[in-house]
Amino acid sequence: MRRKHTTAITVISKISERQVSRSAALVVIHGEELGRKYDLVNETVSIGRSSKCDVQVDQDSVSRNHAELTIDTGRLTIEDLGSTNGTIVNDEHIEEPLRLRNGDLIKIGRTIFKFIASNNIEAAYHDEIYRMTTVDGLTQVFNRRYFEDAIERELSRSRRYSRPLSLVLIDIDHFKKINDTWGHLAGDAVLKDVARTVRTRTRREDVLARYGGEEFALLLPEIDLKGAAHLAEKVRKLVEKHTFTFDGEDIDVTLSAGVATVQKKGEDAQELIRKADEKLYEAKSSGRNRVVH
């Protein structure tokens, strides 16, 4: 029986009422990942091109271990680690450790960070602005705009270091039927729950994004086709076994997935997406609730 539609009430809190991180932070104000905020919670924070750095700036002009931040009795200093192109603070190359003050601008390669001191309400605004521009409001995973930037960035890294990169496109089976039978609020609840379920199987470096209405994209750096297909199958089984409930009623939910990986050096983002989309179409046309790679 079709359920009546009800109105969802969304409460929007004031930024000033939200909990503010007490830690100092670096905010990207120029360069890739514009708006991203790095909370400085450790005694030392490394910056550089290496994936092992706390703040990775993956550019040719950045040294593998470029600079380091040190927090000591509330004072935060930055030190250049003998980088090739130097570390610039407020338009000047630093030659020795320098104490940072609120609002200082740090240039590492082509990226510029703004330093925000601890207990500063400005950090909450940066958090909120970044969230609004990169995160899907319903599912709280990344949005398509962020995904499109991320796939270009990860493709560049894949080419540079000759590392694998895979993409999984996920589509909720018979989603229109869920909306028609249970109503759009139930459909929204299913979308949010699927996103939460998939996210339990992702790593920090993976990118999970809402790609379309009921479609998600999962970008997997340094994972080959076999590994990506294995992960997609785990996610499929997890969703199939998960109990989706709305308004006291259980809703059966399954998904289909198409998996593709970068196979040639000059492959671009559209080619990778096209291959994954073709495999997704194959999964859906051959019976749904399956993974094709």
Structure description:
With 293 residues, this protein is α+β, with helices and mostly antiparallel strands. It is built from 6 helices and 18 strands. The protein has a 6-stranded antiparallel β-sheet, with helices on one face. Strands 4-3-5-6-9 form a 5-stranded mixed β-sheet, with no helix packed on it. Helix 3 packs across helix 4. The two termini are 37 Å apart. About 5% of the residues have low confidence.
Concise synopsis of the structure shown:
With 293 residues, the chain is α+β, with helices and mostly antiparallel strands. The chain has 6 helices and 18 strands.
SSE diagram, text form:
Blueprint: E1 24-30, E2 37-40, E3 44-48, E4 55-56, E5 67-72, E6 75-80, E7 88-89, E8 92-93, E9 98-99, E10 105-108, E11 111-116, H1 122-134, H2 144-161, E12 165-172, H3 175-182, H4 184-199, E13 207-210, E14 215-221, H5 225-241, E15 244-246, E16 249-251, E17 255-261, H6 269-285, E18 291-292
Parallel strand pairs: 3-4, 17-18
Antiparallel strand pairs: 1-2, 1-11, 3-5, 5-6, 6-9, 7-8, 7-10, 10-11, 12-14, 12-17, 13-14, 15-16
Helix pairs in contact: 3-4
